[in-house]
Amino acid sequence: MLGWLRRVIVGLLALVGLVVVVVAGGLYLLSAQLFEQYESRWQAPEMPPRVLLHLKLGGPLPEQETGTVQALVRRQHQSSLRQVLEALDRAAIDPRVGGILADLSHAQLGHAQAQELHQAILRFRSAGKPTIAFADTFGEGQSGNTAYYIASAFDHIWLQPSGDVGLTGISMEFMFLREALDELGIEPQMMRRQEYKGVVETLTERSLTLPVRENYRQIAESLYGRMIGDIAMRRDIAPERLRALVDTAPLNATAGLENRLVDRLGYRDEARAAALALAGGEARPITLGDYARTPPANPEAPSAQIALITVSGPIVRAAPDGLFREDMAAAGQLADALDAAVNAPSVRAILLRIDSPGGSYVASDSIWQAVRRAKESGKPVVAWMGNVAASGGYFIAMAADRIVAQPMTLTGSIGVAGGKIVFAGALDRLGIGHDRVAAGENAGLYSPLEPFTTAQRQQMERTLDRIYADFTGKAAAARGLDSAQIDRAARGRVFTGADAGEVGLVDAVGGYAEAKQALRTLLTLPQGAPLKLQPFPAPEDPFQAMLDLLRGGDFLQALSGLSRLSALLTHYETMLGGAMEAPQPLRTPLPELR
């Protein structure tokens, strides 16, 4: 038996060895490709005397400014949102830049990111430079809301003759699993504080409860009203007329042209030729990413250094290691970054970029404390909110000196939810028995195989009460709200940035430009004074990440474990075989206990 198992493991080792060769070869080729791309990125491209900037948007612009292999592969080297915004602002005052052409055919941004770009294009236009947006279609089988919203900030909108204007309004859809879970014998035992905390309803309900429905209806109307108001202003269309057009959307290209939603019908090459002509002076196209790496036309004045710390993704106590890990906001890493910014003599203030739906209460509290330490050290902190900064995302923002949110940011959600999902009924239906041995009345508190006892449920309810009291107490103290005001702003309600300003949860409605101005105000700098943002921690070197993986990653640790197991089985097989024959010496050492 041991011999058979050992042969299986040896076969696995051979297979794993082959995989190692393939993976190593792939990593080598990838590293060579990345090195070539990075080498080109280190070398700033030559700037022609006259340029037309080209901005091509795919998926969401990354929030994190990182050099990890994960970011390079998944995001295809796309510039971060901040890098795009800064390049546009610099180009607005660069005499070499004659205009900008944006391809929005595949733009899929969140509402707040779309607003950031919308505002940046308006700032670029204010310099008197032409702006042209092109799309083959604004939505094909999906909403084109955010792509068209960005396009509405441009002077000229081009649409392919076969395309549509898919400006269809705001819809929020939810799937409810309660009936399916009941059929499977799975019981969600979830609790919340308070009635507007809708995060658990997809598990516990069969449709939206009245308070949550009303909250989401208000969010949809706020987003829709802002979108209609901004587009109507930019396109010089009466809001009532625009609402009527949206109710008949999607509109074909001809209808879009007739109703002044687009300016020209044509193809990508025709839009490019028109944009080059408007840029003038034998302009040559250059991508916005390439432009961002070129030195400025005029030397920059001395600027105040600002630490940029990005909170992106779910908030967790510790993020898992791995080459292709998803974005997570790890409390320890963020607290270290905040402390490093405080201890850096050159850093005068901190810009905290938040794009997170929340997560762990303990992790959020750890980051909150680090933000508070930074503020108490005398270095101002401005929280700049992205698409969403809700629940734990708002928890960490409220410790800042100033909070800036886009009108379409989703924030608030001051509340808490918790509990567990019990699978015991499902196992019973499958004929899978389960039993346990425990010491202590609450040993099974978090077990998915045992429902809460009455005492355990009461304990969980007290825990939620404690967390909710802590959250609302800190929010009220930070925002200067009395008990009635914090009750109106809390109870799990989610707000748009515009509505959050009305209940006192944010200080300013706006984006990157307003966040930088808030920093200048806190530092008593004149309006428009230059600021230099430095990411903390510094972006990770992708080549070092690959070396770490090859040198001591989980993959090789598993390989080492298989090798040790094979050696151990060889030893015991030798011992057992020797009991029936002649005694054999030990051929492999026993594994060490570590």
Tags for this entry?
single chain; 594 residues; alpha/beta; 2-enoyl-CoA Hydratase, Chain A, domain 1; 6-stranded parallel sheet; 22 helices; 20 strands; 47% helix; globular
Care to describe what's here?
The chain is an alpha/beta fold. Among the domains are: 1-43 and 553-594; 49-168 and 249-293, 2-enoyl-CoA Hydratase, Chain A, domain 1 (Alpha-Beta Complex), CATH 3.90.226; 304-415 and 491-543, 2-enoyl-CoA Hydratase, Chain A, domain 1. The protein contains 22 helices and 20 strands. The strands form 5 sheets. Strands 10, 13, 14, 15, 16, 18, 19 and 20 form an 8-stranded mixed beta sheet that branches. α5 (145-151) links the parallel β3 and β4 (156-159). It is globular. Mean pLDDT is 85; it is low at 38-42, 71-76 and 568-594.
Summarize the structure.
By secondary structure, this protein is α/β, with parallel strands linked by helices. The protein has 22 helices and 20 strands. The longest helix is centred in the first third of the chain and has 41 residues.
